[in-house]
């Protein structure tokens, strides 16, 4: 299939989405996408976490002790169809929030949902049982 650069622009987000599509991931299905913001201090992370909770975001907060310098990381979980323009909009919003709270936006990721025909047949049989 030829890449549609309107749907999958030639940048990091477009490349990830294109690779997901090429791997067989159904991008019309909602995914839980994880966006991350990193902080050097617990206090800044906690203030940002409270702000995100007030904005009705689903989050987790943990310390990454394996980083070169330990850092506090907020992960924001957004259940959505992985569409380029929506991802870019959320990245801009989370970047702004990170900067307002002394943190740094650190990217997004999600689990791929790829099923082959055998997997679907097995699932169908399980549901019939």
UniProtKB/TrEMBL annotation:
Pfam families reported for this sequence: RraB
Domain (Regulator of ribonuclease activity B) ranges: 11-110
Signal peptide location: none
Protein name in UniProt: Ribonuclease E inhibitor RraB
């Amino acid at each position: 299939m030829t890449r549609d650069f309107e749907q999958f622009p030639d940048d990091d987000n477009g490349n990830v989405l294109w690779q997901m599509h090429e791997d067989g991931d159904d991008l019309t299905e909602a995914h839980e996408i994880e966006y991350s913001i990193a902080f050097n201090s617990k206090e800044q992370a906690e203030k940002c976490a409270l702000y995100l909770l007030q904005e009705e975001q689903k989050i987790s907060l943990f310390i990454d002790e394996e980083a070169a310098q330990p850092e506090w990381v907020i992960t924001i979980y957004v259940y959505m169809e992985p569409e380029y323009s929506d991802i870019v909009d959320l990245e801009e919003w989370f970047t702004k929030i990170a900067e307002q709270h002394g943190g740094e936006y650190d990217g997004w990721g999600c689990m791929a949902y790829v099923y082959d025909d055998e997997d679907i047949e097995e699932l169908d049989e399980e549901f019939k049982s």
